[in-house]
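ARCHIVE CARD
Drawer: 12
Card no.: 0347
Subject: one protein chain, sequence and derived structure
Cross-reference: see card 0346
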Amino acid sequence: MVRAVACTDVPKLTVIVGGSFGAGNYGMSGRAYSPRFLWMWPNAKVSVMGSGQLSQVMTSVSKDPAQHSSLKSEIENQSTALYSTARLWDDGIIKPTDTRDVVGLALALAAGERSSATTEQGNSTGYGVFRM
């Protein structure tokens, strides 16, 4: 799945509607795969790992329980959609009721870009530079 997302030659539009953690974020065209647009619903969360999973990892690594709870609350606060969009990690928070309109507008924009994209040789293969 990761290879398919990385190698695909279509505009990638991502809407995070719930939790997007770790490798699942990558596999579903998270920011690392440079989607054309990435939006989040107000209830969405994004982080390297969920706060519960992080707490379990910290239990096995560290013996200080006070550090576990403070780290868990810190991760929960930093995984919210508002925190993410404030740091420009996404293209904004959209209302669930506006999702269809926003994605439709983005598809129209991507179709216009795609039809006008050509290489210097005048073809639209889109291949990058091959190196040996």
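Annotation on reverse: The CA atoms of residues 30 and 112 lie 23 Å apart. The helical segments are 2-7, 22-27, 51-61, 65-78, 81-86, 99-116.
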